[in-house]
Every structure is written in structure tokens, then in C-alpha cells.
Specification:
This protein is an alpha/beta fold. The chain has one domain: 3-Layer(aba) Sandwich (Rossmann fold), CATH 3.40.50. Helix content is 33%, strand content 21%. The chain has an 8-stranded mixed beta sheet, sandwiched between helices.
């Protein structure tokens, strides 16, 4: 395992692990951003070797207050999301600033990758830093936290898509953090990966928001949709994990992050 690197973020220290491809570089890199829960750097769900084999480095870190990172861990709810998400996004920015200063890293090819809650954090971090060049979002919500939590509460009731849509449209509870204003201003490429059997995030609502933003603002947003995949991008009919690197490589080539090798 790579050595632990302490990265300062305000008055705390984030414990990070950097893995780079062979050779002097400079290499493109993906900073892995956490989903919800007490996540440590060793819990990155994707296999690292495909990225390294294509010349892409990876940096993972323990969430604040978890593992070897200092600070206090906060379990984010709808009501606290407006306050806590900017703090967590600030940690992402601190890590990005660290990698941007390393000679082995190409500062013009720094991306973020993460799932679930990271879908809110990564665009927010990109709005706070000019060093972030692209994002890969796995089952990342574009709906507000309130809408997403409402969907999570009703997803297993056996409702039809129309009934779920009507329920969400009539929701009058607390919205919490709403990413749409941030997404409307985002001017970097984003790859959104979604499963049609996701019972944690409202995929249909999320995709609709992305499509509206693209139509209104011409944003460079690309959607890859897997009809029978769940929140973890596992095909519920075959039990097969969707291959995120293979899905992302053609897109990364299109935006100039990697070559065709």
C-alpha cells in the first residue's frame, strides 16, 4: 500500500493515498470523492489497475473525522446538507490543490470521480476551484437532498413510475441542498452514470434535470444509462458489476484526458 500523505484542509488534516502510473508523467489524475457514511480511502469501489494501466493516477483519502483524517465526522441529513456540503467540498478542493502542485501530475487534467453523495459534492467543489477539469459521477443526484430522501423513502413501495413522479412533484418538505444552481453554472465536462433500478436516488428525475440544463445552457454533460443496474451499478438481473473504467475511457478520450491506447 502507498504511504499515507497528510493534506491540510483548513484546521484539519486529511489522510490520503496517491497511486501513479509508471513513468515520470505528468499524468492525468482522478481524485476519489466519498459517498455518504464513514468512508476510508481503502473503500474505493472501483478497481484501480485499469485506470493506472491507461495512465491515469488516483488519489483516495479518508473522509474528515474517519480513519486517519482529523476533524469531526458529520452524518449529513436534509436539514444539515446546506451547511455540511460546502465543508466537505472544501476538503475536495484542498486535495485537488495538493495534486495540482505535484510535478508528476498534469494540472490541466485533474478530475473527480465518486458515487452517490459525491454527486452533490463534486460540482460544488468545481464551483470553488479552477483546478478541476472534469467529473465522473456514479449514481450522483442532481435532485435536491429533500427530493432524493423522499424518493429513498418511497422507492420500495411498489409504486409505478407515474405514481413516484406525482409524489415527488407534490413534495412540500425541506429541500436541503439543491445542486441545480451550481450545475447550471458548471462549465466543465461531466459524465453521469445511472442505473434504472436505483432505489436510493430518483434516476428519472436526475436525468430530466440534466437534460433540461443541457438544453438551456449547452453544458457538456454526457449520460450513460444502464436500465437494469442498481445504485451501486450492479446489474440486478445478472449480478454483474458495470465496468466503470471501460465506460469512461471513450469519454475521457473524447475530452482529451487519455489517448486511444
Amino acid at each position: 500500500m502507498a504511504d499515507c500523505i497528510p493534506i491540510p484542509s483548513g484546521d484539519i488534516s486529511l489522510a490520503a493515498q496517491l497511486e501513479l502510473p509508471p513513468g515520470p508523467g505528468p499524468h492525468p489524475i482522478l481524485v476519489v470523492v466519498h459517498g455518504s457514511g464513514k468512508v476510508e480511502r481503502g473503500q474505493f469501489a472501483c478497481e484501480t489497475s485499469p485506470w493506472l494501466e491507461r495512465g491515469v493516477g488516483l488519489l483516495c483519502y479518508d473522509k474528515r473525522g474517519v480513519g486517519q483524517s482529523t476533524g469531526s465526522y458529520s452524518n449529513v441529513g436534509t436539514g444539515s446538507s446546506v451547511e455540511v456540503f460546502p465543508i466537505l467540498a472544501g476538503d475536495v478542493v484542498a486535495v485537488v490543490e495538493y495534486v495540482a502542485g505535484r510535478p508528476e501530475i498534469d494540472a490541466d487534467r485533474i478530475g473527480l470521480i465518486g458515487g452517490s453523495q459525491a454527486g452533490w459534492l463534486m460540482p460544488l467543489a468545481a464551483s470553488l476551484s479552477d483546478e478541476i477539469d472534469f467529473i465522473i459521477s456514479i449514481s450522483g443526484a442532481t435532485s435536491s437532498v429533500g427530493i432524493s430522501d423522499r424518493f429513498d423513502a418511497i422507492a420500495e413501495r411498489g409504486l409505478s413510475e407515474e405514481e413516484i413522479e406525482a409524489d415527488l412533484a407534490s413534495y412540500e418538505g425541506t429541500l436541503g441542498f439543491d445542486p441545480r444552481p451550481v450545475l447550471e453554472e458548471l462549465d466543465i465536462p461531466v459524465l453521469w452514470l445511472y442505473g434504472g433500478r436505483d432505489q436510493s436516488n430518483p434516476t428519472a428525475n436526475d436525468i430530466s434535470i440534466i437534460e433540461e440544463i443541457v438544453a438551456e445552457h449547452g453544458s457538456d454533460f454526457t449520460i450513460e444509462f444502464f436500465p437494469t443496474a442498481n445504485h451501486d451499478l450492479v446489474d440486478v438481473e445478472t449480478g454483474t458489476q458495470i465496468n466503470t473504467p471501460s465506460t469512461a475511457f471513450p469519454w475521457l478520450n473524447r475530452i482529451g484526458v487519455i489517448g486511444t491506447g
